[in-house]
Amino acid sequence: MYNHDILNKIIDVYGLEKAAEFCEITALLYNIKYTACKEKDPLTEFDFERIWWRDAGIELNREINIK
Question: pTM for the full model?
Answer without folding.
Answer: 0.85
